[in-house]
Amino acid sequence: MTVSDLAGAEWRKSSRSGAGNDCVELVVGRSGAAVRDSKNAEFGHLAFADIEWAAFVGAVKDDSLGAG
Q1: Which of 32, 42, 46, 55 has the fewest CB atoms lying closer than 10 Å?
Q2: What is the pLDDT of residues 9-68, one digit of tens each?
């Protein structure tokens, strides 16, 4: 995902977010995805290429990230 992909993008909050502003925001584009901290959006974002994003989402769904 490039910076130009984010121009005019509509960031959305995680469906797991609470009522406050402490959450992760996401934008998915044609070439990948980006995430940022909603309370510190000015600090930038993390960008992932399509294959990286697909691998991450797959690991979350499979519960194979090994939290802890």
Answers
A1: 42
A2: 888 887 766 666 678 888 887 788 999 888 888 888 888 998 998 998 899 888 887 765
Dist. CA 34–CA 2, nearest whole Å: 9
CA atoms within 13 A on the CB side of 39: 7
* Residue 48, token pair as written in the block: 């992932």
pTM of this structure: 0.70
**Among the listed residues 4, 67, 60, 12, the one whose alpha carbon sits nearest the alpha carbon of residue 35:** 12
The kind and range of the H/E element at 56 are helix 50-62
